[in-house]
């Protein structure tokens, strides 16, 4: 989501004095350290590996194998072909009376070796199977015979009842694309068998590589002919002089480390960034849009915190099912490890992520004061009602904040170098309080103001809600924590998420579970409180006391001014588009994501009058420790479609034909990116190697100086089974958003809510005279209707929409949709 902004800031973070010093190490040493970090992570996961490393086998299968060998031995058969006798000879001679024991031990050792060999074979076979990506090319609803055979084999080798980390040892490593395929000129066909990239066999280029994106093709729509020729010249010079050397180092890293790009992406894009985390890096996630299960702030906090800790309990026990595409292809689960008990610690040159194995408290902020709230008693996890009691005690506590304590958290929104320096002084004087916050399971902010959709001013209230989640007041979030749970005074919820530790689908998965659990499973009593009874024996929440040295007071004031300036400059706009949703798009036999992306291209062109580089994030979790790749959605095909839509002489059938071509191109780019054949992560890796080698590359400098004026992301709905969208259509997540990647650009995210609503989250900078979030929102709505009108069903829809006034139609939050009124979930009350 917000990673586009961090990627833009990559070059400044590498050209600072600190960055230069760090990058003076030899590249081979850095590759060695990357592999060492990978192996350390593997060792730290030893217990998980013990539990899941035998998957898809089980300890019971070892017992079965051992029993079979013993039975064969009893029947005077030797399934080991003499190996057990050899093993017996190697065992110590304990005397004749232990001869039978030696036989049993020999059988057990042989069974263990055979069992381990079988498991290893299963893992290798499954890894080879999971390296096949031909299924990505299959049209929706159609499946070729090879793919059916592949699915059957995956089902056979995958075993039953997998745990969260069961597939980690079987996931393939992310391939390094051939550098010629990444950079090659427009229209140039890849040579058969050339390049040596993964996915080639027998001298035949993998079909995905024929569809793979090319850097030069991606920039042609946004460059003049003169600029494009200059860029193409730089690219050809790069391929001749530097590419092969840089590529060799990347391939070496891919053989040694778990992932050739992810650890560098985390370090250089996130942890080395010196900018404020607020707006620039963090992102937010919203509550239910139209309903609030209870207006009691402490009760909502109690249920939400309990639900989050239930999720952590399931995570620790690996009871969360691994995500499977098509119900069969597993995704990497490594990012789940750092959801809880995690803090980003600021440093002078780079930050680091601190993760604790466990934490039995949460840190709470309310009216400028910090508290430590225990989450467990001797009997286990506190009940929702007990947690509500603790939060209510904080709300009722009349004690004022100490001087400068109220604005202390603004330091986490300051530039990272400044915060790192101040933190040293803070740690020496207020170590216990700082440890209570940084060592918490997560951070909770009890806001004193209401938020969410209101009937009086729906549009403005949603915009203010998004702004409160993204930036708040600049001093009421601890932006270093993996996430902050925000509970508003009217019971509305939200998340502010730090980005470095994981990507949006991970926190989104947790958030879906939290909303469904706290609302549908935990529920509330008739008076809006958590179910159960208070526990008067619980100790009071611990107030944290900060001994703030005088020398940091100016820093706090400076950080607060900077945070308020940054917060005041962000323009957020949220609107639910309810004229149609994914059900209509499916009836058009199109990809929902590609449909929206092409509509965004049309909307942005109408807004700015020009095309721009477009950043769409997609996942690469098909591979071990994969994170994201960029889909460059502004293609020649998309531009041709947009120009046709703006040409009055073009007919609807002509525009529709160009639209389908653009959608097909976008799907090809998306699938190539998911399969590890994208452009941007490969170019990023080459650039980092060039920096380690102190090798100047004008081409790579040009690539990483690009500005992404349109950064986009779809918020996936991953656990639709947790929600009853037919009976309770309002009880679905409304997604989230992030800040713009460019000072004169937009950040746009969207989520499909049920079948008939799409919620958009738009952000831009108020300081820019070129952008306006509300204006783009209107263009997006018009573009969606215009694209839908290319289809017969959409024409009727557009005529109906245009024929109604905004007051009657209720679109763009002018009024509430019909289904928003009176929709109730079991044991809850719908409130605004």
Automatic annotation (TrEMBL):
Family membership: Belongs to the carnitine/choline acetyltransferase family.
Domain named Choline/carnitine acyltransferase: residues: 214-781
Transmembrane stretches, start-end: 50-75, 104-126
Domain Carnitine O-palmitoyltransferase N-terminal residues, every copy: 1-47
Membrane topology summary: Multi-pass membrane protein
Record-given protein name: Carnitine O-palmitoyltransferase
Superkingdom of the source species: Eukaryota
Organism encoding this protein: Diceros bicornis minor (South-central black rhinoceros)
Compartments (UniProt record): Membrane
